[in-house]
Amino acid sequence: MRIKWVECAALSVMAALSVMTGGGSWFLALALGVTLLKCLLIPTYHSTDFEVHRNWLAITHSLPISQWYYEATSEWTLDYPPFFAWFEYALSHVAKYFDQEMLNVHNLNYSSSRTLLFQRFSVIFTDALFVYAVHECCKCVDGKKACKELTEKPKFILSVLLLWNFGLLIVDHIHFQYNGFLFGLMLLSIARLFQKRHMEGAFLFAVLLHFKHIYLYVAPAYGIYLLRSYCFTANKPEPAASSLFPTLPFQEGPLSCILGSKLLGCVQCFGQSALRHRLLSVGKAGDASIFLILSTTGHYSLFPLLFTAPELPIKILLMLLFTIYSISSLKTLFRKEKPLFNWMETFYLLGLGPLEVFCEFVFPFTSWKLKYPFIPLLLTSVYCAVGITYAWFKLYVSVFTDPPVGKTKKQ
């Protein structure tokens, strides 16, 4: 049944893309197409995070503010910053029109059909901020490359890589989280820095920190950039961002610094974080190569999150489609330059296929399954860690060896 939903999703994608005619309708079509796909993923498996957020809805709706961070009826206590608590509070006032019982703190593991619909649609609806942020970021892309075909334009490629991000699709719309909304704040903040609207960018990032504290480790990058490009520019021209971050293909500083910091994180979460590096990939072949290694490896590292049988063909199909598009589109964009992968990188990425076959189709039928059930997760983690470490090493080599943008030959 769920496989049929995926088939319907493919049809919806084709229908959405078929309306891309003239003007800027192509972006709307991409956004509409991915929204339809998200709706088709509503019946899929959801993790314990679904109950976490249902409990937070109940806490913020039924208890006074003074008890929000002390309520412990459920093991899933409210542990996000205040803005996210108020976000749940706002959602709860819509949730009551779907199913009042979901807002009862004592209804542990409550999951009615109306609760499922509300929570799934709440993620889809709040993704509107992410769509807007992607649109703003795409305005900042340097579109100097002359392309007759729409699908070869950097802005189009960037839009697809962001809006149709495989990591966000499976983590938010199957596993269940609100990363799209949060990443929307992040991307919108970056877009404002691109647009020299530094105060707005700083404000949006401060708001983001009050939604989810994990973004705190991006703060040093923001601080350094704002000090250099905004605070210390009195009575002198603003420094060229490319002089601070020489490897950024769009010749803008904040993105290189911020995205580099944001990509630091555990292997399990890397598929989500890698989308920020995507903004680098459409401007420079070297960055495109690093992105493809990071994205493919990071996305595969998310596979253990969806461990149920019905979701197996869904995650494989979606990742294959996204990976094939990523590689083919960026190869087309940089077809006049050297190959994106060397033989070792190609061999490593192709190795993900046999690894998946072993973990999903061979290991379950071996005698090791009962005695060593952790082996597939161990192999996945180690294999992905090798690829991500290599990509980071390659990125650092690029940072310290590539000449400044101003001194390189213009594309």
List the helices and strands in order.
HHHHHHHHHHHHHHHHHHHHH
| Cα gyration radius (Å) | 22 Å
- Fraction in helix: 55-70%
How many helices in DSSP terms? 21
Give a verbal description of the structure.
The chain is an all-alpha fold and 411 residues long. It is 63% helix and 0% strand. The protein contains 21 helices and no strands. The chain has helices at 2-17, 25-40, 49-62, 82-95, 113-126, 128-138, 154-163, 166-176, 179-194, 198-211, 219-231, 241-244, 253-262, 270-273, 278-281, 285-300, 312-333, 343-350, 352-362, 368-371, 375-401. α1 runs antiparallel to α2, α2 runs parallel beside α7 (154-163) and α6 runs antiparallel to α7. It is globular. Residues 16-23 and 239-280 have low confidence and may be disordered.
Short structural description:
With 411 residues, this protein is mostly helical.
Element layout with pairings:
Elements: H1 2-17, H2 25-40, H3 49-62, H4 82-95, H5 113-126, H6 128-138, H7 154-163, H8 166-176, H9 179-194, H10 198-211, H11 219-231, H12 241-244, H13 253-262, H14 270-273, H15 278-281, H16 285-300, H17 312-333, H18 343-350, H19 352-362, H20 368-371, H21 375-401
